[in-house]
Predict the structure.
Amino acid sequence: MRLVRLVDQDRPAIRFVLEGQDCSARAGDTLLTAILAGEGSFLRCSEFGDGPRAGFCLMGACQDCRVVVEGLGPVRACATECAPGMVVRRA
Ligand code: FES
């Protein structure tokens, strides 16, 4: 878990799939929040070899957080709301 949820813990729970694993999020979470608030999660591995990534700008400007959503293709996790049933894989 790289993010700890301190507020909004009463928002409804939703389910999504990350790399074939059933995961939970809160309604209104971005994919970045949903993924990083999960146990042991990271967004993707760096193609430059410096380990797992957790995003950089967190405001939709750098693409460091890109993931692939079934039916949408590559998206910025920090700027994409997690939806129930979303199927996500690391880019
Ligand atoms: S972290 Fe930079 S675009 Fe998402």
The radius of gyration is 12 Å.
